[in-house]
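Re: that backbone. Tokens:
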């Protein structure tokens, strides 16, 4: 029931039942401080409402709050039956504008709430509004509005961090320019507190990290940036909104305007370009020999063999073309004018020149290109000895690891010790944190532990092992402590094979037969070596028969 009305400078004030008031679904403000609400409720209860709430009429005699939701909530907390309102007929677009402007004038509006309000205004159809028009309406610059709207692109985890103040606004604006995958990749590092000084990475640090790791120079793209057919659903780079030059106001700190901020799209286009080149190479190979075409070579500019399964239909049983992959150390680029009978084309699959067809030599015995093919006998002898030494070291690691595992299993650790669980965890954690990285890595892998990423993006095996320790019982904690204490004995380095005295002493004390373990490992290694040699002979025979067949066909 509505009581008597009064006049104010803002319009006619009515007193209406609080039960007829509905909150607006478009209000940018979504969070309210509970303590502040209770303080406002107490003030209204004792002093009355100084400024009426602005509402607009709805169906069935109800009203929707346009401005004053906080005051309305305080009325509900104060358990008041009526509230003073000013009723105005307003279109949806006018309501959005009024709510956004009113909230902008409040100091406690969060950046995310402000961003959502701007996005709502810009998404309305009738009447349509541009960023420039919105900036004029609210008295802000175009760059300010664009940067706030960019915050709506943050993933939920980043929005939560911004609300919780574990992510500053300036850093959030940097992260909002990335794709969702890259945002989740950089967020743990950007929100992690430094162990030394307790500070988080600043805006400049985050910006530099993002530019180095996630932004790609389109001027060095190996594919045609104007091609609209490389990846379905992806426009040409010049028309892509994720290019820094598409909207320079969002990237004022990036000097190169032809910079891609979408790594996934860039990689997909690069791979599509490489695939096109590969198909051309397949056609050429089949034209040379339709029944037995030469294999297609994929080469990497890096030190690891390239992954090629996603580039071609490797499972196509009808294709007679085979594929080989080579890392940088396994091929040599043949220079112009060089005469090499082993020269073959190789498709580069990574780096700025991905898709380029190189003339390469992959024959390890080539006297022209492979450096180790023309070394002196002394140098050749040294490398042969070095390979043999490394082989022995690998076998010794297997032997010593098995000796340590057997020794730990034979120790009567189930009887426990005088240390309590907390002390055992402290000692085990200290050993892990002080351990050599390679030892920790091998221990984690042996236990099937998946490491999280550190703030630098590398696997953090130490953190994984510390978490693993929390779930161990006393006996397993003791086993881990023994394992860590003797890890250096069980993992000889490449600098030499020193006698693992402590490990051998433990093995002798608990009755582990080291000689039997060594014999078992050596026997398995010899069997594996024989299998490998027999496969080499079979392949060499097949290759020889194939060459003779080709020679007969030519004659």
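Recovered sequence:
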């Amino acid at each position: 029931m509505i009581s008597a009305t009064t006049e104010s400078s803002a319009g006619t004030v009515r007193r209406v039942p609080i039960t007829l008031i509905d909150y607006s679904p478009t209000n940018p403000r979504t969070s309210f401080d509970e303590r502040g609400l209770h303080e406002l409720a107490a003030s209204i209860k004792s002093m009355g409402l100084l400024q009426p709430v602005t509402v607009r009429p709805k169906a069935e005699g109800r009203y929707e709050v346009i401005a004053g939701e906080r005051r309305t909530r305080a009325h509900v907390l104060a358990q008041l039956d009526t509230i003073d309102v000013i009723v105005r007929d307003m279109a949806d677009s006018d309501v959005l504008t009024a709510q956004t402007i009113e909230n902008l004038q409040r100091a406690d509006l969060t950046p995310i709430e402000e961003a959502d309000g701007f996005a709502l205004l810009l998404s309305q159809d009738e009447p349509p509004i541009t960023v420039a028009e919105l900036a004029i309406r609210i008295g802000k610059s175009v760059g300010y509005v664009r940067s706030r709207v960019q915050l709506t692109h943050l993933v939920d985890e980043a929005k939560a961090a911004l609300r919780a103040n574990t992510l500053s606004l300036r850093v959030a604006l940097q992260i909002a320019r990335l794709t969702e995958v890259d945002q989740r990749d950089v967020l743990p590092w950007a929100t992690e507190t430094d162990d030394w000084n307790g500070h988080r990475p600043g805006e400049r640090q985050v910006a530099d990290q993002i530019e180095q790791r996630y932004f790609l120079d389109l001027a060095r793209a190996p594919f045609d940036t104007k091609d609209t057919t490389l990846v379905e659903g992806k426009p040409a780079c010049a028309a892509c909104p994720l290019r820094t030059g598409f909207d320079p106001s969002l990237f004022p700190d990036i000097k190169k305007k032809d910079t891609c901020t979408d790594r996934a799209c860039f990689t997909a286009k690069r791979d599509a370009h490489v695939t096109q080149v590969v198909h051309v190479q397949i056609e050429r190979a089949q034209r040379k020999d339709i029944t037995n075409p030469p294999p297609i070579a994929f080469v990497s500019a890096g030190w690891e063999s390239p992954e090629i399964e996603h580039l071609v239909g490797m499972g196509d049983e009808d294709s007679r073309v085979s594929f080989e992959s080579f890392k940088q150390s396994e091929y040599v680029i043949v220079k112009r004018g060089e005469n090499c009978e082993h020269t073959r084309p190789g498709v580069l699959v990574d780096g700025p020149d991905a898709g380029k067809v190189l003339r390469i030599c992959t024959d390890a015995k080539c006297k022209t290109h492979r450096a180790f093919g023309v070394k002196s006998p002394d140098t050749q002898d040294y490398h042969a000895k070095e390979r043999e030494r490394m082989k022995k070291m690998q076998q010794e690691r297997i032997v010593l690891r098995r000796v340590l595992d057997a020794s730990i299993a034979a120790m009567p650790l189930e009887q426990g010790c005088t240390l309590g669980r907390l002390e055992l965890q402290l000692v085990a954690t200290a050993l892990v944190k002080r351990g050599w990285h390679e030892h920790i890595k091998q221990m984690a892998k042996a236990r099937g532990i998946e490491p999280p990423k550190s703030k630098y993006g590398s696997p953090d095996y130490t953190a994984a092992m510390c978490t693993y320790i929390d779930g161990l019982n006393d006996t397993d904690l003791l086993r881990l402590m023994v394992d860590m204490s003797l890890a250096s004995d069980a993992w000889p380095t490449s600098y030499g094979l020193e006698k693992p005295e402590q490990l051998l002493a433990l093995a002798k004390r608990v009755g582990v037969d080291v000689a039997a373990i060594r014999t078992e490992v050596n026997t398995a290694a010899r069997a594996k070596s024989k299998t490998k040699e027999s496969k080499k002979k079979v392949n060499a025979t097949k290759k020889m028969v194939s060459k003779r067949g080709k020679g007969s066909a030519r004659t």
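The chain has four domains: 6-161, 171-267, 271-374, 393-512. The first strand starts at residue 6 and ends at 8.
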